[in-house]
Design brief:
Rossmann fold; elongated; alpha/beta; 12 strands
C-alpha cells in the first residue's frame, strides 16, 4: 500500500499546473523513477536473456529503472539478492525462483516491507506468501504439446525417458501435462512406457551425463523428452556419442536459436516454443497496472506452440 500511494502521489505531481494560458512556465517536477529489482534463475540461457531484455526494454519505455541479477540456480544467492532489493527500497520485485518452495522466506520479507512481488516464468509454491500476479508460458499445455510430439514419433508403442528439473514450478507443470497425455493414450490402448525420469538440472553438461546413463540402461529407448533446450542439446550430444543419431529422437522445450537450428538439421524432432520477451513486457504492464491501483489477475499465461522441422526449414531467422 505504501508503494502504491507513493506512486500515485508522484504521478499527480507530473500533471500540468492549473492556471490561465500564457501565465508562464507550467511545467511540473518529474515523478521519481520507479525502480524494479529482478532476480532470474540464470542468465546463461537464451530464454532468460530474452526475458531480461523484454523487462528492460518495456521498462525503459516508461522511465523505469530495471535492475536484473541472476541467481544461477542458487536459492541462497537469490535470497540475498531479494534482501538487497529490500534494503535498496525498490518499488517492485520480479522473481523467477531457483527453488519454488525454498524461496518463500525471502518473499515473506518483501511482503513485510510492503514491496509488491511478481513472478515471471516460474511460480512460487511456498505457503504464506503474497504474489501480485504470475506471468508465464502455459507450461502445463506446453507439456501436453511435447507429449503429442513424442507420440508422433512413437505412434502407439515405444519407450520414452524424461530428463527433468523438478525443483522449479514451470517444469513440474510441463511434466504433469506430459504424463497426462501419455497416461490417457495408454488408457485408450497404447503401450508407451516411461522408462526413466531423472533430473538434469536444466543444464547442457549435466543433461549430457544423465542422457548417457539413460541410453546405457535402456538400449531400446525411442525418445527423450528434455524439459528445456539446454537439456535437449545435452541429450543430442549423448545420442551422437552413443552412435544412435536417428534412432533416438529428442523433443525439447524453449525455442532457442541453437535448438531451432538442430531441428532444421534433424538432430531434434520438435520443440515447444515459448515467448520470453512477451512475458517480460506483460510483467512490466502488470507492475504499472498494480501501481495505478488497477486489479491484476492472479495468473497470466501465454500459449506455447509446437515447432517441427518443416517450421525450421521455413524459418529465415536461423543462422547458418
Amino acid at each position: 500500500m505504501r508503494t502504491r500511494l507513493y506512486f500515485l502521489f508522484a504521478l499527480l505531481l507530473t500533471l500540468p499546473a492549473c492556471g490561465p494560458q500564457g501565465s508562464g512556465d507550467t511545467s511540473a517536477p518529474a515523478a521519481d523513477e520507479v525502480t524494479v529489482g529482478v532476480s532470474l534463475l540464470t542468465m546463461t540461457h537464451p530464454f532468460f536473456q530474452n526475458l531480461a531484455a523484454g523487462l528492460e526494454e518495456e521498462g525503459a519505455k516508461y522511465g523505469m529503472k530495471v535492475t536484473v541479477v541472476s541467481t544461477e540456480f542458487d536459492v541462497a544467492k537469490q535470497k540475498d539478492q531479494l534482501s538487497n532489493f529490500i534494503v535498496q527500497g525498490v518499488d517492485a520485485i520480479v522473481l523467477s525462483p531457483a527453488d519454488s518452495k525454498a524461496i518463500g522466506t525471502a518473499i515473506q520479507e518483501a511482503n513485510a516491507a510492503g514491496i509488491p512481488v511478481f513472478t515471471a516464468d516460474i511460480a512460487a509454491l511456498a505457503d504464506g506468501v503474497s504474489i501480485v500476479t504470475h506471468i508465464a508460458t502455459d507450461n502445463y499445455a506446453g507439456g501436453r504439446l511435447a507429449a503429442e510430439a513424442v507420440m508422433e514419433v512413437l505412434g502407439t508403442s515405444g519407450q520414452v525417458a524424461i530428463i527433468d528439473h523438478p525443483e522449479v514450478e514451470s517444469v513440474i507443470q510441463r511434466t504433469t501435462g506430459f504424463h497426462e497425455v501419455i497416461n490417457a493414450a495408454n488408457t485408450a490402448g497404447a503401450t508407451i512406457e516411461v522408462v526413466a525420469q531423472l533430473t538434469g538440472g536444466g543444464t547442457k553438461d549435466r543433461a549430457f551425463k544423465v542422457a548417457e546413463d539413460i541410453l546405457q540402461a535402456h538400449p531400446n529407448l525411442d525418445v527423450i523428452f528434455a524439459i528445456n533446450d539446454d537439456t535437449a542439446l545435452g541429450a543430442v550430444a549423448a545420442i551422437e556419442k552413443a552412435g544412435k543419431s536417428g534412432t533416438v529422437q529428442v523433443v525439447g522445450f524453449d525455442g532457442t536459436a541453437e535448438a531451432r537450428k538442430a531441428i532444421r538439421d534433424g538432430k531434434i524432432y520438435a520443440d515447444v516454443i515459448q515467448h520470453p520477451r512477451q512475458i517480460g513486457a506483460m510483467t512490466i504492464a502488470s507492475i504499472r497496472a498494480y501501481m495505478a491501483g488497477e486489479a491484476t489477475p492472479a495468473e497470466q499465461l501465454i500459449p506455447a506452440t509446437l515447432y517441427r522441422q518443416a517450421d525450421a526449414q521455413a524459418d529465415a531467422t536461423i543462422a547458418e
